[in-house]
Amino acid sequence: MCDVAPEARFTKGFPFSPDGTPVGKRPRGIGVLPDGSKAYVASEFASKIYVIDMATMAVTKVLQGGNFSNGVAVTPDGQRVFISNGKEASVSAIDTATDEIIGTIPVGKRPWNMAITPDGRKLYVACGRSDAVFVIDTQAWKAIGEIKVGQLPWGVAIR
């Protein structure tokens, strides 16, 4: 983990889960709430999401994710975290107040990385095996578009 304060430093060690085991195999994505209080780590091989208290660097909760959880996107207001489920063709949403998964939205094949608009209303999901980026309306909880982009898109950036 890296402290991004002006005097940036690397912390020693890596967070551990409540039972003392390291954060799952192949941690793939991480998202930090805007206030810096919590981080969400998607572990692809474990298909789990680890909630980390950034003040103590301790894992406070482990959620069962979708098959091959990997990409992580945090809404600008910090109320939701989205996790792509690589082998389930879906994206799950976490309510950050309860740290529970509150819904799953179908998208294209092999969703990887994601980006959310500055207003938090649209989530763009790179779906590698569909050769497309899917657009999710985060208010209506559904995919509203598919943009063909060529072979195996892996990531998305919004500027």
3D structure, described in words:
The structure is a single chain. This protein is an all-beta fold. It has a single domain, classed as Methylamine Dehydrogenase, Chain H. 0% of the residues lie in helices and 50% in strands. It is built from no helices and 14 strands. It has strands at 2-3, 9-10, 27-32, 38-43, 48-53, 58-64, 69-74, 80-85, 90-95, 100-106, 111-116, 122-127, 132-137, 142-148. Strands 3-4-5-6 form a four-stranded antiparallel β-sheet, with no helix packed on it. A hairpin with a 4-residue loop joins strand 5 (48-53) and strand 6 (58-64). Mean pLDDT is 88; it is low at 1-12.
What would you say about this model in short?
The protein has 159 residues and is mostly beta strands.
Largest sheet: 4 strands, antiparallel
Query: Based on CA inertia axes, which overall geometry fits?
Result: globular
Broad CATH class:
Mainly Beta
Regions with little confidence, pLDDT below 50 for 5+ residues:
1-12
Number of strands: 14
**According to CATH, what is the topology?**
Methylamine Dehydrogenase, Chain H
Alpha-carbon distance between the termini?
26 Å
- CATH superfamily placement: YVTN repeat-like/Quinoprotein amine dehydrogenase
Q: Can you name the CATH architecture?
A: 7 Propeller
Relative strand content? over 45%
Task: Write down the overall mean pLDDT.
Answer: 88
Assembly type of the shown chains? Answer: single chain
Indicate how many domains the architecture comprises: 1
What order do the SSEs take from the amino end to the carboxyl end, as H and E? EEEEEEEEEEEEEE
Largest beta sheet: strand ordering: 3-4-5-6
- Cα-based radius of gyration, to the nearest Å: 15 Å
